[in-house]
Write a structure and sequence with these properties.
This protein is 37% helix and 17% strand. The chain has an 8-stranded mixed beta sheet, with helices on both faces. β5, α3 and β6 form a beta-alpha-beta unit. By secondary structure, it is an alpha/beta fold.
Amino acid sequence: MNIKDGYIDFEGHQTYYRIASPEKKKTPLLILHGGPGSTHNSYELLDNMSELDDRPIVTYDQLGCGLSSVEGSHPELWNKDVWIRELINLRKKLNLKSIHLMGHSWGGMLAIIYLTDYYPEGVKSVNLSSTLSSASLWAQETHRLVKYLDSVDQKAIEIAEKTNNFSSLEFQIANDHYMNLYVADSHDPNRPSCLTRPKVPGTESYKVAWGPCEYTPLGNLHDYEYTDKLRNITVPVLFCSGANDESTPLQNKIMFEHVRTEKKWVLFAHSRHMTYYEENALYEKELITFLDAHD
């Protein structure tokens, strides 16, 4: 498989990009990764789709993480406006005039903001993957999921939130249990290399934009409320989420009902948050079918 990667200039910084099978002929799929502050790495699991579907797959590391990390502390950079400008710059510099868009988790939030606030041209469809349209509903649902942890973990999380101190060992253990239940098993020795290789996490960007942990949105995205704006999306929408996902069925049902264009929702019965990893073959099949229908 042919991989093209490199850097593009962005406002005095650099954005790392990676294209699987750039020579393929169909409309490229541009993937927005989660976090904020994660990386493109795990979406390499979808590389073989570029061969199966004759389609370039474009990923990149958003500013503040991975190969687009920035030295030092720069809290002024970690907000949706900067990341939207970076996305616009990426499309311009890579000449991505026509695309399909996929956003996973925070990447889905970014896609929703992009589509409903900026009305970009050349987007043929969007895959909103394990994402959210409301920070307040996310907090409500993730706190409901916390109640499935044991009483010791629940107490540790309660104390951390009351004291605004998330550094205790008890909280770290509780948070690890939450992540393993609803996101992915970070202790699985059989994880593919793209999930385990060393990377620069966007720790500061996550804390500044989102908050100290998944279920406590205290950052500058705390007032992210885009459910009503979903009706302004004009392209076909594929929703993907897992039955054991922190992007819960209730959240996806509400988003699905607010979208007014052509839409489909696939609930992956055996997945947590990383549906494209835990049910990779089925995820690729559903995504390929959707993209081909809207080329």
